[in-house]
Model the fold of this input.
Amino acid sequence: MQVIKGFEAGKEALDRGSLRVWDSASPQVLDRIEKLFNERLTPREVVSRILDSVRWRGDSAVLGYTSMLDGVDVDVESLEVPKAALKQAYDAIPADLRKAMETAAARVRSFQQACMPKSWIDEATGLGEQFTPMARAGVYAPGGLAAYPSTVLMTAIPAKVAGVDEVTLATPSGRDSSGPNPTVLAAAYIAGVDRVFQMGGAQAIAAMAYGTESVPKVDIVCGPGNIFVTLAKQMVYGEVAVDGLYGPTETLVIADGSADPVLCAADLLAQAEHDALASPVFITTSETVLAQVAAELARQLEMLPKRNIAAAALEGQGVLVLVDDLDEAIALGNLYSPEHMCLLVEEPRKLMTKVRNAGGVFLGESSPEVAGDYIAGPSHVMPTGGTARFNSSLGVHQFLKVTSVIGLDSETFHALGEDAARFAEAEGLNGHARAAQIRLERSKGGGL
Amino acid sequence: MQVIKGFEAGKEALDRGSLRVWDSASPQVLDRIEKLFNERLTPREVVSRILDSVRWRGDSAVLGYTSMLDGVDVDVESLEVPKAALKQAYDAIPADLRKAMETAAARVRSFQQACMPKSWIDEATGLGEQFTPMARAGVYAPGGLAAYPSTVLMTAIPAKVAGVDEVTLATPSGRDSSGPNPTVLAAAYIAGVDRVFQMGGAQAIAAMAYGTESVPKVDIVCGPGNIFVTLAKQMVYGEVAVDGLYGPTETLVIADGSADPVLCAADLLAQAEHDALASPVFITTSETVLAQVAAELARQLEMLPKRNIAAAALEGQGVLVLVDDLDEAIALGNLYSPEHMCLLVEEPRKLMTKVRNAGGVFLGESSPEVAGDYIAGPSHVMPTGGTARFNSSLGVHQFLKVTSVIGLDSETFHALGEDAARFAEAEGLNGHARAAQIRLERSKGGGL
Done:
């Protein structure tokens, strides 16, 4: 864990350069590729091959890669999980977990409803915007060892609220070919997912982007995944829409002298336990708080079941920075552009207006990141790796598109037609100019 | 030009399948590649090489490809066009064209201002959305033979209205190394573009996406371009945001028995003159109108300076379809998902609500597509190739991102904390559960 003093040193430590975390693979991954493909391929080459195969061979390629890469045997008949299995999974989960999931789902739904943009036409100008939902969305939910039913709620519900006709979920079976994680299926039931396919990895993204005999082609693929899923999303961009490319998770906590070091450390550790590549970053204006948080991190780490992962994340990416004032803290936060920016300061609402780049901003002690992960309402699928500079959290807007409405009245068109024709002539487009002029002439009783 | 009767036959003719027009190249392009690179490379391979070179070698790669591919010699000092040249170009254009461009710019600005979403927080829930602009946008404007100053207004102004700090324009020099098209520079002046670089093709996209010694790295690359520009945009997606991938332009006109065949034909020809690959599509419920439009197309074609291009487009992609009613017409329109959908019908506002997939919808005789191209207000940069199924017209939303705001009060958090902890435990994330529980215990006077 790096401890850094001063703004300039903080800048250096938090500048991400142009590294794309989602495009680099560990030596272990490269070795596994070589073993499976009998060739030293890059992850990008592997994914390119998988995409091509699924595009041209459909189901059989999906099933083949599922067997080869996931070690799971699925046949065409069982590729789609029957709808009844979702309800069964829902009925089988413990009542208190079910209640927690239902509460989360209701809050996600209600927040997304509040985010829905409205179509409008300005009657004075005849111009407006008409929002329409995509027809089909494909949601990816990782499975196997780390299954996140919460992610199903956080992706599928925004799609349904946006008005998507059919939401497809792709999620891999467990290693024992026992089918997808039951809690993931229960979440799919709660979220109102229309169809579930037991498939994972790049082959799942390809199946949804191109369509196969069994899997319908969608308009957008979304949700987090491993490097192969993410590369596949990058490469199908344009064929379909993509919500974003997600890497390891990140939390940046900004604290002033009023912050509770116990809570700061707990929130940083919640971040760190996700993944050895997770990034817990702490920026404070108080030297005392900095020292206390460092001590608390060491103390609380010992109590964590996942202390090995958390320790690796702290060691690898953990940074504690001391700065002079909150303006410097926010400047560093905006430079880093984290997935989660938590403001443990006296006046978080005031500081928030200076946040320019973040997936989500968490205001004060009662809004820890864990609330955002599960229950607050906004989707926990948020831009990582600095992409908050240009990308948004997942929400209804990702599943909507806007059609510009152009409904000029005759008077307006006649006031503008000459200018349009002149501009068109300047670009050498006489047919365009004529389409305008012909209307102007007609109104004067002229013909063509 | 195909003439088709009936809905089912229309469906077959207008189904695009999964063809990506922006990913296929003509034999001439492939030959030129072979000549320039001494290898039979695909356009994608060419672009991949260019991206890598610019990424690692910066300016010198940009200048090298500009010389090699565009036949234009530019040195580092003249890569950026001096600001004074923009004002000079603006002063030098004819007064009536300047007026037309100023009128267009004012209307684009005013429409985009009306489209600006507003940040909000619901005080009851503590949740909201904070919209912030990207810091830097890179706009591409094709140059050389076909320069479109209107496109500069239609891309740069939405970025400026959204609040982007610095808008960069990339546009190639003319073949004679005389610098960019002066009307394009004048448009850049009007739009308030901050910096202009004379560069084109994939190397321009790479320079803006990665940054070079001279060209600042941007957060989004946008605007239309040829196949190399479009492939480059596809491949840098994720590194930066991309507005969309654009192919040849398309207009689909829906007409009932009330439509004026002269105007229908003029609008289809305005479309057709763009490009031999442009798609003019006509769908009508009236057999009489269909016959009249066919006759008018033949008659008006003869008057067009660009009749060869327009004839090629009509021959290659032109389709006239006769259907039974307007519901069938709209269903075909939504299937085709055109860039422009023009409703030359008695009640366009009523029909509009059934439009699901279109870049822009043009209502009635006084709203021809030419008005949208130049002067109506909404950006003429709209999704093509069927991507209106999932993409929107260019606008402020492309240059904004939204940060989710999570500001729960203590009471709300305490009501939800147990559910959050339970959900976290179910996913095996005890550190998350602890971050919630520690807050609940504190309020009961407990410690850690």
In short: Chain A touches chain B through 135 residues (CB under 8 Å). Chain A has a mean pLDDT of 94. Chain A has three domains: 2-18+247-376, 76-124+132-242, 408-443. Residues 76-124+132-242 of chain A form a domain with the Rossmann fold fold (CATH 3.40.50.1980).
